[in-house]
Amino acid sequence: MTKIKINNQGGKGVPRPSIRQYDRQVVTAHICAELQTGRSLENICTKDEGMPTVAGFLKWIETDPEVSKDYAHARQIGYLKLADEIIALSDKTHEWVTVQELDPDGKPMFGETGEPLLKTVLMPLNNDVIAHKRVQIDTRKWMLSKMLPKIYGDKVTQEHTGANGGPIAMAAVDLKNLSDEELENMNRLLAKAGRTT
Predict the structure, then answer these.
(1) Residue range 98-109, pLDDT digits in tens
(2) Dihedral, 82, 84, 90, 92 alpha carbons, nearest 10
(3) Cα angle vertex 65, ends 72, 80, to 5°?
(4) Among 41, 44, 48, residue whose Cα is nearest residue 3
(5) For the whole model, what pTM was predicted?
(6) What is the largest CA-CA distance in the chain?
(7) 3-state secondary structure 63-105
(8) Which domain holds residue 81?
(9) In the predicted model, is pLDDT for residue 192 greater than 60?
(10) 19 — phi, psi (to 5°)?
(11) Which end of the chain is more exposed for a tag (fewer CB within 10 A), N or C?
């Protein structure tokens, strides 16, 4: 839990400051620094001392352009950190685990005081851990695709086709039935397109 000092001067019987009395600069700087590390706004506002509620901070974002700008920048950095976490999660194949020492017969060993003797060993990840990592990776990928779609979103292309998936049929225009004005307009459009008739 991170502690932050808020200007809370006053004596006995003085109520805690309302959200309007918080030092916005200090609180915003703290929240933005924590968002850049990948923490959620909910986690920061509920776990760190002296923070406004999530709703209160979102109100600051709505009403204060400077807070809004700082928040957007911090969020972007926090989201980019998620991309690094995906790589770290997918690269991890083993982890250090503390286990009890065993004697040559496979029985747990204890010290002179009766406490178990422990050692740290590098173990391959089991299926449960791998499944949990997959959920963590998928969650981060989804967040990135929604929050930074230009960088991490799925690219969507559109293709136009004619009837039954075939090519688009080009129809010939019968110029005989066009009025002089319509022909003149067509000539002007073709001239603009770099063609002449």
Answers:
(1) 999 999 999 999
(2) -120
(3) 5
(4) 48
(5) 0.55
(6) 110
(7) HCHHHHHHHHHHHHHHHHHHHHHHHHHHHCCEEEEEEECECCC
(8) 1-91
(9) yes
(10) -60, -30
(11) N
